[in-house]
Amino acid sequence: MQMGDAEMTARIRDFLKKRCDEGPCLVIDLDVVRDNYQAFARTLPDTRVFYAVKANPDPAILKLLADLGSSFDVASVTETKDVLATGCTPDRISYGNTIKKESEIAAAFALGVTLFAVDCEAEVEKVARAAPGSRVICRIHCDGSGSEWPLSRKFGCEPDYAPDILELAHRLGLVAHGISFHVGSQQHNVEAWDRALASTASVFRACAERGIALSMVNLGGGFPAKYMRKTPKLESYGKAIFRALRKHFGNAVPETIIEPGRGLVGNAGVIEAEVVLIAKRSPEDEVRWVYLDIGKFHGLAETIDESIRYPIRTSRDRDEMTPCIIAGPTCDSVDVLYEKNPYPLPISLAIGDKVLIEATGAYTTTYSSVGFNGYPPLKSYVI
Ligand SMILES: *Cc1c(COP(=O)(O)O)cnc(C)c1O
After folding, report:
1. What residues make up the domain containing 70?
2. How far apart are the two ends of the chain, measured CA to CA in Å?
3. Nearest residue to 115 (alpha-carbon basis) of 152, 73, 68
4. Is 363 inside a domain boundary?
5. pLDDT digits (tens, 9 = 90+) for 148-160
6. Smallest CA separation from ligand 1 atom 14, residue
7. Is residue 240 domain-shared with residue 342, that is, in the same domain?
8. Is residue 135 lining ligand 1, measured as CB closer than 6 Å?
9. What is the pLDDT of residues 2-23, one digit of tens each?
10. Crossing angle of helices 121-130/162-171, nearest 10°?
11. SS3 category, 33
């Protein structure tokens, strides 16, 4: 199987056949997560993998990855504890969230974490007080173009400012360790890393002139899962990144790490949901409203602005298709998944039919509300 393929596996199909409980659920196939991890390790052999825990923090996924030798990118003390619970040691954890309370930094440090991301001077001061002597990575800004889920405006300093931030860290007794960036999640352009690495190399040079030797580049996430749109192969990302590293660092390529989230678990999961209602707004209406028992509040939050377009399969996909508006079941009008760009579904689709929403292993369970309108959080089975 190709990494990134949204594919119903035989194991998931068998599990769903035998399933007897009600309501929507996500099923994750750990074999796919393992294949994905090995594909990353093969494609970027000199780069350590830090799984971005926020994509899916299920304990079975964390345990599998820890056993495979993965390291972890965490954003909170809870995520740190979840990773440590697998038996993974704290030297395999990077605290990548640039927005932390001082008490959280102290708690992570007490648990043994000594690698923190920062993107401004105030955060450096917090880390210097709460986690003295730690290594810091300065996150620089990326514009996120070419990605379907940009992470740009909220994080990262302008690259020209990074040497000042790292020099402050150095003066405050921290180890100015390196640079990180995130090219935007679900990044389609394999060249996106080239621009970020050009900026990174100039920060390395500026720091060297100040007598500070940086040693690590965190290449972030952004590796895609396969949804409706075709994505380049993982090998193309690996080659483009390798080329960019050689181009900008020559023979002095620094230590590199990646933080895949979506690319590791996205295609490992399938959601089974059910058609609750099919409605026309007038007798001659061409576009039907199809309401599912899952929506924006039950794990499909990444359909905001119709950013992520999941493959949806039914048992009637050989029949004639017709454009539909797809919505969730709650009494909130933002709970619409696809409307601007209607979604083709079979004319024969009926109330009570099951639908499969593929490539939903990342950014679903944790985006599910706790009980909005009385609907329980999305159930998840890891097999
Ligand atoms: C979310 C996140 C990631 C994972 O991004 P993907 O696009 O899902 O691979 C990596 N690093 C950081 C700092 C993140 O916040």
Report:
1. 30-264
2. 18
3. 73
4. yes
5. 887 767 899 999 9
6. 52
7. no
8. no
9. 444 446 899 999 999 998 889 9
10. 20
11. helix
